[in-house]
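Appendix B. Chain record.
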Amino acid sequence: MKISVLTIVRGRKTHLHNQLKGLLQSNVPPSQWVIVGMNEDVSVDLPADAPFSVKTARVDGNGTQLPLAEARNLAASLCETAGMVFLDVDCIPSPTMIAHFQSALRKDDGLWMGNARYLPLGAAREGWQMADIQKLAVNHPLQPTLNPGELMPSKHYELFWSLCFAISKLGFEKVGGFDDSFDGYGGEDTDFAFAARQAGIPFGFVGATAYHQHHSVCKPPLNHFNAIVRNAIRFHQKWNVWPMGSWLEAFAELELVRFDPEANELMILEEPTHQMVQQAETLSPAGF
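Structure tokens predicted for this chain:
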């Protein structure tokens, strides 16, 4: 099965360049690299001897939220291969990532989540070498630790993240793609996984490693406050389950929302201030 890598991006030009550097070191290169810019044009200069082609496109949102779901769906529509690997722009693929995803899809045509390992600040500075970042990367504590290429089928679809995953083009179409009624950040990943479960598509983890480049994060993600609340309500209406519970509870502790999952209630009480957002920003050593 031929594989394409699909990436959506807003800004992060250095991260995109580092992803290209990783793709060029793949033991099994992709057939195609599809890049969709969100609210911006995107271009990449491939070396003349690159073993894959690149296709770029652009999607514009409403000017206030990134059109994440729409961008991923556009990337999938432009993909010309039977297998697809969605790779976050922050991720540098390991040399064996594509081969392990390819093997997983051949064994079981399902939804396979890769192993994103996190890099400390400065690990992917100019001139980085693959051997160095492999030594510095650490596993995320909420994800299983797998050997290279190891497969772990799972019924826990709620653990799916879109950072690094593979699915066949046919499987993606069976799911129906990402639901673009989820506007902006939060909820669209879990919704996609729940739709895959509803469509009868098996889920699992695979030891297909990508290295996540460091960037600051908000804990809790107050920088996405309105989108998270809006998308949580949309998700609950659709699935009768509250997603992102820890974030909603953190918002409630800050008295920004009233959240009562038993009463099916979520209501904004107050918007976070700019100072609150700044205080929530952190440069954690592991980048998560």
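Further analysis of this model is presented in Appendix C.
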